[in-house]
User: Fold this.
Amino acid sequence: MKEYYSNLEDHIILNMDQVVIGAANRTLFDLKKLGFTSLVLLGRYSYKQPQASLDTHLHEGCLEICYLERGTQTYSIGDQLFHLKGGDVLINGSSIPHGTNGQPEEIGCLYWLQIDTNPKSGRILNLNSQESKTLINQLNQLSNIHFRGIPGMKKDLEEAFDLLENPQPGMSSIELGYHLLGFILKVIKAGARKHEKTISRQILQSINFIEKHFEEQILISDIARFARWSEPHFKQIFKSETGIPPGEYLQRIRIKKASELLSNSQLSIAEIAWRTGYTSSGYFATVFKKHKGQSPGEYRGN
Assistant:
């Protein structure tokens, strides 16, 4: 099926046969193949169970805006680690390695938009050259930080997906361009508000405590006592600042270490369970499969 759009980056031809469909609950549109000169790819995943980790990779010459609509997700950009929760925005700078730091792609919904930082036309959508340069500069200033999104982002993205997945005869290119550009401008506006997520000294110290003692039989009450807070207050603050409960963070650290041992050692699964803080190999296997989508044995076999 073809639909023709005029007055958007000169002439856009949307050929729906060129839409790239990934795994179940994961959809990508190759915008370059659809005729855009400044936008590279628009994607969305909506997972009901954790998926494999996202390997470290980079995008030459383009930056990537990630909007986590719901759920939680850990990302690394270079040597920085980010913990996103629903409503957060993260911008990966052009040509900078990034991934999920060995963590699974979590339950939730994530959108991402890749933008060519030096398009041949010199223009982003219907903006002139100077406006396009200003927009790219503003996005570059927001690269490798994360901040809260603002109302309207989700609607712009949903409308753009609807237009691409269900093209209607006579549909104007202006409508598609309006939603894509509207999303980008909202990202810039949200970033300008400086709603970057900061983590307090107490929580940073608690994270260091977890990473030093994860092999031991520590409880959340132990970590709360270390932070000198009551357990309910500690849980509330920890989740508010990191996007995930402290118990979940502890499990992720343990599973990451267990994954390394499964890949790089000949230790038995029972020994690995013990070394990563689990007294029961059966419980360890249950938690591992929840995070990795495979049993420890299956993971080692791959």
